[in-house]
Amino acid sequence: MNPVSARRLVPLLAGVLLAGAAAADSFRCGNRLVTDGDSAAKVLALCGEPSEVTTTSILRRPVVWRYGRPWYASDDLVPVAVEFWTYNLGRQKLMRRLRLEDGLVVEIETLGHGYHDDP
Fold first, then answer.
1. pTM
2. Is residue 32 part of a domain?
3. Which pLDDT tens digit goes with each residue over 70-89?
């Protein structure tokens, strides 16, 4: 491979890798995109009701960020509402599970192929 071709190939490969990394924390509902940090209301508006919702609560120490680093303000534990929303997009597509903490998407997980609910 000549040096000119290599110089053109490196930015192309970098762009492909970055696009793949961005897609890991997002998923499409039709032509709309859900990403980390989106609110529960926004997800409902974009995707509709999930096929399954699991709710729990965890205890966590509150974190204050100072100078770009986490700093724990106290040893007190506060409850955090955690919900897992599962979207079944059909047999031909992969299901997605969203983890929401206090109403915000913090994780998007890809599951196996969806299923079709018979009425």
1. 0.68
2. yes
3. 777 777 888 999 999 999 88
